[in-house]
Design brief:
4-stranded parallel beta sheet; 16 strands; mainly beta; single chain; 8-stranded mixed beta sheet
């Protein structure tokens, strides 16, 4: 399944809900490292949930800026058993590419467990200064 721009594949606000994802996700847009002035696409969420999440499929969000693989909120727990890859971030525009994240504000929380791999292959930019990043978390 390929997401375009500003898309969400799975969303649930139900704290008692259970999601198991077995569908590989990809993002559309510029390849990692494209100049910010000409970059397109991004701002996607793969799985955004308040309940229990198990991800068993790869998420390749290396194209576009500011994509988030899995986001856990409202005390939920998200477990990743696959590979998540994210690309470029632009801090000037508050567009951050994130493999997994938990909690939305200081009053919200979530839990994340990574049994797979998270690759950050993009660059991060702040005030038009860009640093190429390549990180792998297992």
């Amino acid at each position: 399944m390929t997401l375009g721009t500003k898309s969400v594949y799975l969303y649930s606000d139900d704290t008692t809900g259970n999601i198991t994802n077995n569908v590989a996700l990809t993002s559309n847009g510029s390849t990692a490292g494209t100049a910010l002035t000409s970059a397109i696409g991004g701002q996607n969420y793969g799985i955004y949930s308040a309940g229990t999440v198990v991800n068993n499929a790869n998420i390749d969000f290396s194209k576009g800026i500011g994509n988030v693989g899995i986001y856990s909120i409202k005390g939920g727990t998200a477990t990743n058993n696959a590979t998540i890859t994210v690309g470029d971030s632009n801090a000037d525009s508050s567009l951050y590419s994130i493999g997994m994240a938990a909690g939305y504000t200081r009053t919200d929380s979530g839990n994340i467990i990574n049994n797979g791999t998270i690759n950050v292959v993009g660059k991060r930019c702040y005030r038009n200064v860009c640093i190429r990043t390549r990180v792998q978390l297992q």
